[in-house]
């Protein structure tokens, strides 16, 4: 087993609570809502359609 490299995957993306300081401390940065890709946008749309409040969540990215 070996560690992933930029050749394997260019970035890690996640949806997290806005209080994501632990995530920022390891190099993740927030992605603006208007910069979400189609997969993360679809997750947000499904959550909103289910009545979930997405405002306390933020998409984050870390280039690897």
List key phrases describing it:
single chain, 64 residues, alpha+beta, three-stranded antiparallel β-sheet, globular
Summarize the structure.
The chain is an alpha+beta fold and 64 residues long. It has helices at residues 21-24, 38-49; strands at 11-17, 29-31, 57-63. This is GNAT family N-acetyltransferase.
| Number of helices in the DSSP assignment | 2
- Sequence of secondary-structure elements: EHEHE
Strand order of the largest sheet: 1-3-2
What is the helix content? 25-40%
Protein name: GNAT family N-acetyltransferase
Organism: Corynebacterium nuruki
Describe the structure.
The chain has helices at 21-24, 38-49, and strands at 11-17, 29-31, 57-63. With 64 residues, the protein is α+β, with helices and mostly antiparallel strands. It has one domain (11-63). The longest helix has 12 residues, at 38-49. 5% of the residues are buried. The model has no long low-confidence stretch (mean pLDDT 77).
């Amino acid at each position: 087993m070996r560690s992933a490299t930029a050749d394997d995957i260019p970035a890690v993306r996640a949806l997290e609570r806005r209080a994501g300081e632990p995530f920022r401390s390891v190099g993740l940065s927030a992605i603006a809502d208007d910069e979400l890709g189609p997969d993360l946008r679809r997750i947000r749309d499904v959550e909103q359609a289910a009545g979930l409040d997405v405002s306390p969540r933020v998409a984050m990215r870390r280039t690897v």
